[in-house]
Write a structure and sequence with these properties.
The protein is α/β, with parallel strands linked by helices. The protein contains eleven helices and 15 strands.
């Protein structure tokens, strides 16, 4: 039985990933800032870390065969004040440095780190038909710089002989939280809310495929470096919105374009990411042998609305604020 040490294990992606790991007979240690109300179960336990204080339970590190690193403050949780932008960045970079420094200073058996990153790395895809690939440079925008520093902060793990795989994740579609319920919320009033003109491309991934990608990276020694964790067929915001509307309401909804000025009033600087077109390529991870259960949006939405996540029955606890979100 291999042991996986996971950061951000009580967040949206982390919870589902823990479910699948347990069902595959892995032992999971979840790093957390507090053990209050944490109840260990079969094959799952908790260990303390404190990124701000630079501390981590060394016993947990010594037990681990692999690390999955998901921790980071939620990018869309709050308005981007200077203080919160600093938190978004440092929650990623400082946690990565803490992991690497601990591994450098502690006897361990860790062979692989799979670290989150995001398609926020990329700038807008201004070329018709062009798919952004892992070799494209980081965008100089706030989120592009966050992703650049995020990835840079975990890369020293390679210098101590650890295989490193970084997954740049698109918009995660999950029934239990994140962006998907936000897309659905206006449908309660019969409104399909298309953001701006709706032509901006959305690179998305079903949560089942994302969890499978993390485990695939752990289990396949040939995978190293950076991969886009996105479905092979991105869609426009309008297509995504109407696909969800059709699944939820049938024909009983009204498409409404939300003007940019209203989005700016509601979201502030975050609006730039909502309206940015990001057409990321899934070809590299496909060439590495990964196959998608949900390559197209119709099947993904149908699965979410009719069966929910296919990941097993173990239920990890709800997330405290900021333990795991994607950029």
């Amino acid at each position: 039985m291999q042991t996986i040490l996971i950061t951000g294990g009580t967040g949206l992606v982390g919870r589902e990933l823990v479910n699948r790991l347990i069902n595959k007979n892995y032992r999971v240690i979840i790093l957390t800032r507090s053990l209050k109300n944490r109840v260990s179960a079969e094959n799952i336990s908790y260990a303390l870390w404190d990124v701000k204080k630079g501390t981590i339970d060394p016993a947990a590190v010594k037990e681990a065969d692999a690390v999955i690193h998901l921790a980071g403050a939620g990018v869309m949780d709050k308005k981007w004040s200077e203080a919160y932008k600093k938190e978004i960045l440092e929650s990623r970079t400082e946690s990565s440095r803490l992991l690497v420094n601990t591994l450098q200073q502690t006897a361990h058996k860790v062979k692989i780190i799979v670290s989150a990153s995001a398609t926020g790395w990329y700038g807008p895809d201004n070329r018709d038909g062009y798919f952004l690939t892992e070799t494209d440079p980081a965008d100089p925008s706030f989120l592009g710089e966050v992703c650049r520093q995020w990835e840079h902060s975990i890369q020293p793990a390679e210098n101590i002989g650890i295989r490193l795989c970084i997954l740049r994740t698109g918009i995660v579609l999950a029934k239990s939280g994140g962006a998907y319920p936000e897309f659905k919320a206006p449908l309660k009033a019969g409104i399909a809310a298309i953001l701006g003109g709706g032509k901006q491309t959305v690179s998305w991934i079903h949560i089942d495929d994302l969890c499978r990608a993390y485990i695939y990276a752990v289990e396949n020694a040939a995978l190293s470096g950076i991969y886009n964790a996105v479905a092979p067929v991105p869609v426009s915001n309008k297509t995504l919105t109407l696909t969800i509307a059709n699944a939820v309401r049938g024909k009983f909804y009204i498409p409404v374009h939300i003007p940019v000025f209203i989005l700016k009033l509601m979201m502030g600087a975050r609006t730039i990411e909502i309206l940015k077109s990001t057409r990321a390529s899934a070809e590299k991870i496909k060439r590495a042998g990964f196959s998608f259960l949900f390559p197209e949006i119709d099947a993904a939405v149908h699965a979410l609305e009719n069966t929910g996540s296919k990941i097993g029955t173990h239920k990890a606890p709800a997330a405290p604020i900021h333990e795991q979100e994607q950029v």
